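Worked problem 6 (solution included).
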Amino acid sequence: MALAYRPIRREPLTIFSFALAWLPNELALQTIVLQMVATALFVAFGALDGWAGWLGLALAVAGWIGLVGLAVTGLRATDVTTAALTEVRSDAFPVPPDRTLPTWGRWWRVSRGIPVGSRAIKATRNLDYWGDGQRRHRLDVYRSRLAPPERAPVMVYVHGGGWVIGDKREQGKPMMFELVARGWVCVAINYRLSPKATWPDHIVDVKRALAWVKEHIGEYGGDPGFVAISGGSAGGHLCALAALTAGDPAFQPGFEDADTSVQACVPFYGVMDLTSDPEGSAVFGPGLVEMLEKTVMKVKEADHPEVFRNASPTYRVQPDAPPFFVLQGTNDTLVPVETARRFVERLRAVSRSPVAYAELPLAQHAFDVLASLRTQASTSAVGDFLDGARAARAAGGTTAMDVTAIRNIPDIESPPGI
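Solution. The predicted structure is:
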């Protein structure tokens, strides 16, 4: 629990720090309940018969106080995200003035922590977006059963995992379930992974999936005219890079003319700089570039610096970037907060679109994977940001759903496993 407050930021202990801090940070109240039950059992069996038992009880109570502090900090994410949206709200970008209460992410889902869908959500799984039969070239589509969508806005989610692990079934569910409950169509994609895959295979697959969405999402009630993209960690890198490189032929071999543009981008704790620039990813230490050279790019940065630079969203910022909402935790030991700060600074300097930035206190890596208090706040804010992006686009003459029509869709809880 102490690592949730003061994480270790020195390699190779950063992963150790993340692994121990993640669960108590996001599920602080649940951790207290479990520890109280265990403590009660120990007391019932005579743990307080000696001084050691009383010392253990005192340490447990001190730990509970610390966990309460983590829970309170999770609640504060609402204030942080609200402030981030207030900063970009304008007549031209009309983010709702009042925070939208969660539709899917209600208190009883947050209390159990594990994001489980509901019978109100219809999933169409393992659609082949490339047409080559590869398992990694498949995607899942989520939509509402209760209010079948028609020309609904679309969210494409790219999972993380350091470009080497991960699956479309594992991440982004709280946000996608919340958006589906608000009337969206969501798409979770797989892509080729290293070491079998070599860069730029990963981003090429993301682009190919976007091209499929533009062409086919109408068959599932989605509007190809409004497609947002999101992802976490390596997925945050890939979604940001995709949003900043629409139509780049280097990342669209064989489908250069396909539309891969997006209308909004929401990266969570993304790896925005893959170079060894001392002002950029050097905050990671040498481990990132060494891993990329050996496993992902399979070339030395010293020999091919352009490969690493062109793959870095920080160096691909441009005036025509879509609206961005960047979310980052201050205590992230896998993707240091300095990475997000530098990316946002550079993007704001050139982009003609709003760039919102929420820096969440004490948040570790992968804070949005579980249905936590912090996730509840961030997903609601993402939905409100996207409402603003859609309203701004509609005002510019592009058809979009009425943002008031997607609220308060009724929900049905699913049995376990759905």
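Discussion: Confidence is low (pLDDT under 50) at residues 397-418.
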